[in-house]
Amino acid sequence: MFARKINDRVFCLGAVDWDRRLFDALIPLPDGTSYNAYLIKGSEKTALLDTVDPSRMDELIAQLEDVPKIDFVVSHHAEQDHSGTLPRILEKYPDAKLISTPKAKGMLIDLLEISDEKFMTVEDGQTVSLGDKTLKFIYTPWVHWPETMVTWLEEDKILFSCDFFGSHIAATDLFVTDACRVYEAAKRYFAEIMMPFRSIIKKNLEKLAPYPIDMIAPSHGPIYQEPAFIIDAYNDWVSGPPRNIVVLPYVSMHQSTKLMVEHLVASLADKGVRVELFNLAVTDIGKLAMALVDAATIVVGTPTVLAGPHPYAAYAAFLANALRPDARFLSIVGSYGWGGKTVDTLAGMIPNLKVEVLEPVLCKGQPREKDFRALETLAAIIAQKHAENGFT
Ligand code: FEO
After folding, report:
1. Helices 198-208, 227-239: inter-axial angle, 10-degree rounding
2. Is residue 15 within 8 Å of residue 34, measured between CB atoms?
3. Residue nearest atom 2 in ligand 1 by C-alpha distance
4. How far is the CA of 355 from the centre of ligand 1 (A)?
5. Statement: 4-239 belongs to CATH 3.40.50.1110
6. Which residue, judged by its Cα, is nearest atom 1 of ligand 1?
7. pLDDT tens, 248-291?
């Protein structure tokens, strides 16, 4: 992409990565992503906010061909998809000062071997003048690393938020045009990396609330011209009560667990409980993470393999434990051949979840009438718990 104009003095640089399908060798990117950097030309000084993933370094350097001087480079976040091109930028503009939080400074030195004298660390709330433009730096820790901050451009009321409010979308649109698509991608992104820090993100949202914001410019995905759209969504994700939803990740080897899961899904639906079902043999874990944002209950469906849960089920339990969703109830269903410790093993894998464990339903071999009745009882208990707690 060429540099794109947000207004006469503010430009969106960076790259659209249409082909990237995995982030951190873990997170699926079904819609690709973008690495947005921003250039602000003040009457006296020029600032570059963030860079791009090193794989797209040449594209950013080409966009800066006609920019003879950069005075400040702002690093909001030390992760390499935004910081990885900093060494090349600092080489091109040797007099530029690298602005970061003190914590980010240490991380950038560790990760990229940037030399100490390049840095100008800023305090929370500190401002830097570009002449007729003022950058205000606001610490917003844990979105999603401890060193993260955002920049508020006072005169234009633009918030440059880096990962905060971002979405993994590859598109030519500079601004949000398809709100539904962006909502889903932003929620997926929130679920994958920010959900574990819900309470801190809530404080960050409260901290930003007094600032007038006309536009939010994240470092992934399109720019929000209606900031309330994404701020309201974040407030809902961090503060809203769980919904009347069961997330049911499962895996089945010889169909017994599948029969149980299907009966439980039908029983829950019959009682008015929504179910998000994920076959772990084929599922997109990003979608599973996204479903966990709203779920009141998690039920894991697994056969017993080598005396414990199927590795796919263990993976789902590990993921849920790491993401710390706000679910309130959990249960386990599945089939075993001759014995094992599936329930104990899975229960021991979720210490971070503050859930009430509902009586698991395990059966030996094929499920029979008594097992189907037990699943119906589990569905009734879940529906009752959701109703008692007012989850709708
Ligand atoms: Fe987009 Fe945490 O990096």
Report:
1. 140
2. yes
3. 79
4. 30
5. no
6. 163
7. 999 999 999 999 999 999 999 999 999 999 999 999 999 999 99
